Amino acid sequence: MDMKVKEVAELVGVSIRTLHHYDQIGLLTPKEITDSGYRLYSEENLETLQQILFFKELGFTLKEIKKIINSPLFNRQEALILQRKMLIEKRKKVDKMIETIDKTIKHMAGEIQMTNEERFEGINVGFNQFEEEARRRWGNQSIDEINAKLKGMSKDEQNDLSDRWDMIFNKLACLRNQSPESQEVQATIKQWYDFLNENFSKYSLDAFYGLGQLYINDERFTKNIDQYGEGLAKLMSEAMEVFTNNQIRGGSNENNN
Amino acid sequence: MDMKVKEVAELVGVSIRTLHHYDQIGLLTPKEITDSGYRLYSEENLETLQQILFFKELGFTLKEIKKIINSPLFNRQEALILQRKMLIEKRKKVDKMIETIDKTIKHMAGEIQMTNEERFEGINVGFNQFEEEARRRWGNQSIDEINAKLKGMSKDEQNDLSDRWDMIFNKLACLRNQSPESQEVQATIKQWYDFLNENFSKYSLDAFYGLGQLYINDERFTKNIDQYGEGLAKLMSEAMEVFTNNQIRGGSNENNN
DNA sequence: ATAGAGTATTACGTTACGTTAGAGTCAATA
DNA sequence: TATTGACTCTAACGTAACGTAATACTCTAT
């Protein structure tokens, strides 16, 4: 099932060096390394690679891509949907360029006039709203950034933050036996949501949902969170899902029994 | 009418540094330089820049682009038409990628199966027939036999050689409609003969004749040479035959009408 | 057991600019 | 007229994402 470099390279159409490189910079680490040092890539590695190549095609740097796919907020499905949007934008851009070429040809034939702005339409649109969206969505939100934020704060401020963080988690840990939909849990989850928005960059509801998913999908998070109490990660992710659903279905008028 | 760097940069959406760079490498030299050393770009410069950006968008390197737009064979309208074709191919590629994303999303939802090949469709098509066509049409090609020789030379020497080589072939390609005996063709063939003798092992006239025959008998040569222009191999081999005959029959007294 | 195809690491090369740094230029204004 | 602020220049080092050897180990098939 596992594949060696050459196989992968030929399958996806990149060079072996590229795979080595991605490994070197920690962008795509093969799931396994044999005793003799051979890289073995898994199915999951291929999926990640697919993501990487999509983002690359859309003009992101490897560093950005690394941040994106390592981000606590990263959600594969969401990424795919955004990529789809971006590709449609790209197609529009290509259409614009074709149009510009057609105009230029006509212009050369003396059929029409062209302004200088017109002749660069499509070429200069240096990437659109969705790229922005993606950067906002995952780019800024890396762990490094949180750390950086912490660095810029005084000891007291840090402690304060850390205390409030702790409080919320401890509170939730106490509520582990309750259902994710319960009033108390939901109230605390709201505190968590507000806390994040207050202290870090804006979390959209989508992002918040994605974060919750991460808590059960990314082992690093699960482990960390479950230190507050066995099963807390699971509870939180479920509660966060309920929370986002309720919010989306219109303010807070809905029942959370 | 003439524009300074910043104006151009803002109009077309590239950095000032990019314009400096293009000037440095001789890709886009501003039409005029003021006494104080300011670059002034003309209308024509803008047109060239448009071409450059189109080719860049289509994945050509600056070196390739330079060769293309400096080539004696270069024709702006022809280029635009080819670029149009390439853009349409690119749109197809984008469509394919969108399709792949849709499939992937469905796949994740468990609705459909996907092969590994499928999941990389659109991403890996490393650029199509038209790129090939463009490279054949204007670009240079690799001559493996010569590479060994080139290895022993410095980079500058290599480039110099390659440029002269290119010049000769391009010149001949322009003369394709003339007869092999014509003055111009024969003069250029002499340049070719001298060039070979100067830079590679001594070509006796017999050897030169043999080389000419090779151009039509060995498909690899024919293909390579015809990249400069359809039928060039045939013309050259005929012209080389005429050349050797003339040389052997004593100096240059014979007619070459 | 030996060749041939594949793989690894190391390290320098390359492309297309980005990014200062230091200094001159130009037009409007005080 | 002097000054200021936006603009320009060259020079030179920095960076990203690999390419391209060079050298050495590994695996498999004969």
From TrEMBL, chains A, B:
Residues 1-71 form the HTH merR-type domain. Pfam families: MerR_1, TipAS. The keyword Transcription applies. It comes from Piscibacillus halophilus. PANTHER family: HTH-TYPE TRANSCRIPTIONAL ACTIVATOR MTA, REDOX-CYCLING DRUG-SENSING TRANSCRIPTIONAL ACTIVATOR SOXR. This is DNA-binding transcriptional regulator, MerR family. Keywords: Activator, DNA-binding, Transcription, Transcription regulation. InterPro entries: DNA-bd_dom_put_sf (IPR009061), MerR-type_HTH_dom (IPR000551), MerR_fam (IPR047057), TipA-like_antibiotic-bd (IPR036244), TipAS_dom (IPR012925). GO terms for molecular function: DNA binding; DNA-binding transcription factor activity. SMART domains: HTH_MERR. CDD domains: HTH_TipAL-Mta. The keyword RNA-binding does not apply. It comes from the Bacteria.
